[in-house]
Amino acid sequence: MANGVLGLGSGQASALNSDLIDKLKAAEKKSVVDPYDTNIEKITGEKEIFKNIQTKVSELLAAIKPFDLFVSGGVSAFDQKSATISGDSVTFDAVDLQALKKGFTTVSVSQLAQKDVYQSNSVDSTVKDAVINAGTLSIQAGSAAAITFDTTNKTYQQLADEITANTGMNATVEQVGTNSFRLVIKSEESGIDNKLTITGAASQALGFTTDGTTLNTTNHILEAKNMMAKVDGVEYNVSTNNITVDGLKITVNKVDSAGSSSSINIAEDNTQVETQMKNFTTKYNELVALVDSEVFNADSKIADKSSIRDVISQIKSKLFGSYGSLGDKSVFNYGIELAKDGGLSIDSTKFNKAVQEDMAGLKDLFLGSAEKKGLGTILKESLDEMTFTGGVLSTYELNMQTREKNLNTEKEKAEKALNAKYEQLALQFASYGSIINQMESSFSGLKMLIQQSTSGN
Description:
alpha+beta; 11 helices; flat
């Protein structure tokens, strides 16, 4: 005889458990949620490839900048200069390369600019830390109005702090021996125009003057002086040891010995033009190779190949155009050649001949003018625009972000719907299990009665 009717009495409630729900949910998740994960993963890979393309575009942009009319600093690949220096009394620094003049600049130094420096009489620590109470101290810096300091109830350090708080002068308390201290007062800047004049009763007590007005030369340890030098025969008598002549900053370090001088020879330097052009072609070839490897790859993660292809199309449209004031110049006129793989190469002989014999033509081709921009100038602007809002790279990146955001939103909705569905199913299973248990319990009693009624037969 069967153990149950329609399966009752076989423990069917136990089959409606969490394991069954998990299996059903996992099966449905593969078709409802997992496709979102797959597409999100593709975008993650796409973002990595796009970042590589962005990097190559940035490298190409950096490589074309030396050929831009409006290059930062105003010095293009065609305006480089080199310098040969002799002597050690001065150092040279180019602050404005465009303003630099070719040829020799000779500098001879007869005097350095220096500050005005005074020291007080030496005192021990007891006097240093006690109040001065010696009347007033008057200090005049250059042509400015004199400033009066009252030493009443002031220590050396307090007086020094009050002096330093004023423009044109500084003061410190210096330990100059085992138990020996001096109040040192200096002009804030070097040069005669910044010299100090110290007077007053306290000036005598401290040792700056002999009688309140007459300078104590013993304690006037450094006299304000101007720098005196000749630059290409022109005499300079200035308060600082730095001067700038024709874009060249000259810093004086020491006085020349008799008959000596320092010099710098500035010359045009065209040796880097080919190197910089080769760097540009290398970066262009790397970008082209990377884009081609994605555009022509059926398994590429790039979703919008036409937009990526447009990056190269925009560059090529500029690169292979005609430039110059007469519109008669092309890169192909100067040794730059198109390779079979779509890349660029340089005929060094032809290019360097142009560098030596037709620099004006190269400048016309690459730099152009404000009225008629050259290749380098236009290409630099075009590469910049790609990253601006509305540019091809900016738009592509924004599109990726939007697609990724939408996928995550839809995935979240699908997961919530799936969870809600199986939470409801779990409740239904629990209800069904209770009913089945009740039916199985009733059937168990019926089964016992049947067994008892038949056992007597």
